[in-house]
Specification:
ABC_transporter_permease; globular; mainly alpha; 70% helix; MetI-like; MetI-like fold
Length: 269
C-alpha cells in the first residue's frame, strides 16, 4: 500500500507521462530542470516555507502557554482540554467553511467587530498581502489542540519533587522553576512536538483547496496544492511526481535535521 505507490512516483518523476496519454517517454532529469525554471513552483515553495515558519513556532508556543495555564489551574482542566482539542477531531473541510464565513470581508463577524471599533477590516482571503497570514492563523488554530495534549502529557510526567528541590535551592519564582525544571524536562516532548508540527505544516492542503485555491495570484499556493494542480488539473503526472519527490526530500531533510542536531540538545530524564 505504501511501497508500490512510492516506487511508481519515483519512476514517473523521470518521464513525461500525462494522464490518459497512450505513450510514455523517459526524460531523465528534465522535469527537475523545469522545476528550477518554474516561477510557479518557486512561489509555492516560498509560500510553504513562510507558512511553516509561522505555524510551527506559533502553535508550539501557544500550546505550551495554554498547557502551563491549564496545568496550573485547579478547576475546569477536562473542559479546557476538550475545547482546545476540538479542532483536531473536527472535519477540516467543515472547519474551513466556517473560517470562510468568519473571515468574509462584508458579512464576516471579524470585520464586523473591526467596523464597530472604527477600523476597516481587510479582505483576509482575497488580498495577496493577508491571505498567507490568514491561512497561517488557521493552521496555528488547527495544530494548537494536538500540541496542547502532548505538552499536558509531558507536564504530567515531570516529578513534583523536582519543583520542591528547585524551590529549596532558591528557585522561588515561577519563571525560574520553568527555566530550571519544566523546560529541560520537556525536552523530549518539545522535540517530538516540533517534528510533528513541522511535518503537519508542510502538508497543508485542505484549507488552501477549500478557501483560496492557491490564489489570489498564487499568493497562497503551496507545494501539495501545486502537486494536485499539476497532476489532476493539468494531468501532468510526470511533472507532479517530480514535485512530490522534492516535497519528500524536504520532509526527510527536516526530520534528519531535528533528530541529528536538536536531539543532542535534549535532556532525557
Amino acid at each position: 500500500m505504501l511501497l508500490l505507490p512510492t516506487l511508481a512516483t519515483v519512476a514517473l518523476a523521470f518521464t513525461d507521462y500525462e494522464l490518459g496519454a497512450a505513450a510514455i517517454s523517459w526524460v531523465g532529469f528534465d522535469n527537475f530542470a523545469e522545476l528550477l525554471r518554474d516561477a510557479g513552483f518557486m512561489t509555492s515553495l516560498r509560500n510553504t516555507v513562510v507558512y511553516v515558519g509561522l505555524v510551527t513556532p506559533g502553535s508550539i508556543a501557544g500550546a505550551l502557554l495554554l498547557a502551563l495555564l491549564i496545568e496550573a489551574g485547579t478547576r475546569g482542566r477536562t473542559f479546557f482540554r476538550a475545547v482546545f482539542f476540538l479542532p483536531v477531531v473536527s472535519l477540516t473541510v467543515a472547519m474551513a467553511a466556517a473560517w470562510q464565513y468568519l473571515l468574509h470581508p462584508t458579512i464576516g463577524p471579524l470585520n464586523a467587530m473591526l467596523r464597530m471599533l472604527g477600523m476597516a477590516g481587510p479582505e483576509w482571503l482575497s488580498s495577496s498581502s493577508t491571505v498567507l497570514l490568514s491561512l497561517a492563523a488557521i493552521g496555528i488554530w488547527e495544530n494548537l489542540g494536538f500540541n496542547l495534549v502532548l505538552f499536558l502529557a509531558g507536564l504530567t510526567a515531570i516529578p513534583r519533587e523536582l519543583y520542591a528541590a528547585a524551590e529549596v535551592d532558591g528557585a522561588g519564582s515561577g519563571w525560574e522553576r520553568f527555566r530550571l525544571v519544566t523546560w529541560p524536562m520537556l525536552g523530549p516532548t518539545t522535540l517530538f512536538v516540533l517534528t510533528i508540527t513541522m511535518i503537519r505544516a508542510v502538508r497543508v492542503f485542505d484549507t488552501v483547496a477549500v478557501l483560496t485555491q492557491g490564489g489570489p495570484n498564487k499568493a497562497s499556493d503551496v507545494l501539495l496544492f501545486s502537486i494536485y494542480e499539476e497532476g489532476f488539473s493539468y494531468f501532468r503526472l510526470g511533472y507532479a511526481a517530480a514535485i512530490t519527490l522534492v516535497f519528500l526530500a524536504i520532509v526527510l531533510a527536516l526530520m534528519w535535521l531535528q533528530t541529528r542536531v536538536l536531539d543532542k540538545r535534549v535532556h532525557y530524564g
